[in-house]
Design goal:
Layout (H helix, E strand, L loop, with lengths): L11 H14 L5 E3 L1 H6 L4 H6 L4 E6 H11 L6 E5 L6 H6 L3 E4 L2 H14 L3 E6 L11 H17 L2 E8 L10 H19 L6 E4 L2 E2 L2
Parallel strand pairs: 1-2, 2-3, 3-4, 4-5, 5-6, 6-7
Antiparallel strand pairs: 7-8
Helix pairs in contact: 6-7
Amino acid sequence: MMAAAAKLFVDHEAIASNTRWFVDHVQGDVMAVVKDDAFGHGDVLRTVLDAGASWLGLATLPEALAVREQTAAAGTPILCWVVTPDDDHDAAVRSDIDLAVSDEWQLHAIAAAGRRAGVAARVHLFIDVGLSRDGADASHWAPLCDMARHHERAGSVEVVGVMGHFSSADEPGAERTAVEELRYRNALRAARRRGLRPTALHLAARRAR
């Protein structure tokens, strides 16, 4: 006797309701993270955008490029935060996809793509505040900011954001969360001291003011 196949039912109204709740309660834009085909839940792009999400977040560049094709008419900002040496950085810049940068090699590669495209590539400098998985180590942050400012002056890069990722986002009252937010704010001040003027200031599960 064969077991019945498992089925997954996606409640788009619930997704829309959750999105609208965040839109109504945060002081800023809402980014809907739809990486990995919305974590395997299928196409929810139209649902979250119609509910008020103003950004889309994707992990990998191939995903981001595919989503850009679907949202080109809307011009929705898209952020990709996993940038590899094998990625098509030129396609990302031409498709107006924001890219997270946590290492100087990424910055150089993206700046080169900006020069070839004749536009300033939009980047978000990514600081590791405690997750120890993504982002620049604090010891590398100042040189990264200096190099970003160099590429900004050359017109090949625009630093539009500074981002981080909490290690325990499901524990907002945890002491480590307060420490990690302080690290983020220190990194932001360091970036500003070096002449950078990011306007998209974001931490996973929390937006900096």
